[in-house]
Amino acid sequence: MIRRAPLISSALALGVLLAACSDNASKPAGNAGAAQPASPVGVITLNKGSFPVTTILPGRAETFQTADIRPQVSGLIREIVFKEGGEIKKGDLLYQIEDAPYIAAVEQAKAAISKAEASVPSAESNLDRYQRLVGSGATQIEFETAKTTLLQAKAEVESAKAALSAAQIDLDHTRIIAPFDGIIDQTAYNVGNVVSANQTTALTTIRQLDPIYISLTESSTNLLKLRDAMAASDIKGAANVVFHLILEDGKEYNQQGKLDMSKQVVSETTGTFIIRVLFPNPDRVVLPGMYVRATVELGAENGYALPQLATSRDANGRLTAQFVSAEGKVETRAFENSSPSNNSWLVTEGIKDGDQLIVSGLQSITSGMPVKPVPMKITDNGVVVAADQPAAGDAQKPAAN
């Protein structure tokens, strides 16, 4: 009897467990078997169209022209007229050098002219007299001497006039003026300092910022591709290529640039090609030394434009994007070939009209996950907003991914 008790107890326990399992198996599945809910995602509908083909080149801003201001005469600085760091116009007075010695030199030159001119009538009269007396009291030698004297008197007048011109130039150079419009630096000399003609140290520097140069850098290999693309596009000549500028803060500059043909050089050390572009800069938004990016349009191509904010790159460098499949699930597509088109990537294969590209909610989805598409649109500023939302108001606020 003692040995049978454990066996009976084990049999009873096993029976209770099997009954419980049978009861659970007969009940319907609860929340664990429920279908995964569809997550809302923002989408845009793609349609084939003609889009610009662009390329982006890094660059740096440079002044249109720079002038180091140096004195052309020696003397003491009597007056400094400009405001350091201010805007100046061509012909504005910058420095006034003490001009009293130069005024005296001008007056002395004028007196020398008067003195030289006074001897001319006497020499002319003397020549006329000897010319009448030649052969009847005057020798030929005396006549020739009188002629030479007159020529020397007239030469003295011309020499005095040249000395006056030189003195007047020196006097004018006591007024140091701006050679062109621009922005002026601080002065290296103050009132009371003595300066020398053509000294090595500049008084100050003027920089013209409107227009402004943008020096773009590209590898010589890509340059050949760029030229081929230009040749294959509708662009007629390099002078018609239009450049758009992207500033350091990511905003597009509101002026268009034109290719400057005066500087096209391949660096012997880096193998890069420098392209210089000229941009209007009326408000001096672009300053020398700024790092910028320039977008150049090389023509147009038919395809589908995928906004850059909705794309990424896989480990192989291929462009990838998330789409909504016909079954309402996330579908990841990879594209072997893509071309830049402003703020989008232009692709020609792997997409058909009506495909829905996911543009927001990307951080919370995975491939194969069911989603609920919500129509969206992308503003000119690259902001994702609801398709029925007006341009003003919240349209300026970025949508959360």
Give the SSE map.
Elements lengths: L3 H23 L12 E7 L3 E21 L5 E6 L6 E2 L4 E5 L2 H34 L6 H33 L2 E3 L4 E3 L9 E2 L8 E16 H13 L9 E5 L5 E15 L5 E8 L11 E17 L3 E3 L5 E6 L5 E6 L3 E3 L2 E4 L8 E5 L10 E8 L5 E3 L15
Subcellular location: Cell envelope
Keywords: Coiled coil, Signal
Organism: Rhizobium redzepovicii
Oligomer: single chain
Shape: elongated
The number of strands is 21
Helix content: 25-40%
Total of helices = 4
As a percent range, the share of strand residues is 35-45%
How would you describe this structure to a colleague?
The protein is α+β, with helices and mostly antiparallel strands and 401 residues long. It folds into 4 domains: 40-51 and 302-396, conserved putative lor/sdh protein from methanococcus maripaludis s2 fold, CATH 2.40.420; 54-64 and 212-300, Elongation Factor Tu (Ef-tu), domain 3, CATH 2.40.30; 71-95 and 178-201, RNA polymerase II/Efflux pump adaptor protein, barrel-sandwich hybrid domain (OB fold (Dihydrolipoamide Acetyltransferase, E2P)); 99-173, Helix Hairpins, CATH 1.10.287. The chain has 4 helices and 21 strands. It has helices spanning 4-26, 100-133, 140-172, 220-232, and strands spanning 39-45, 49-69, 75-80, 87-88, 93-97, 175-177, 182-184, 194-195, 204-219, 242-246, 252-266, 272-279, 291-307, 311-313, 319-324, 330-335, 339-341, 344-347, 356-360, 371-378, 384-386. The strands form 3 sheets. Strands 1, 14, 15, 16, 19, 20 and 21 form a 7-stranded mixed β-sheet that branches. A 6-stranded antiparallel beta barrel has the order 2-9-12-11-10-13. A 4-stranded antiparallel β-sheet has the order 6-5-3-8, with no helix packed on it. Strand 17 (339-341) and strand 18 form a beta hairpin. The protein is elongated, with a radius of gyration of 43 Å.
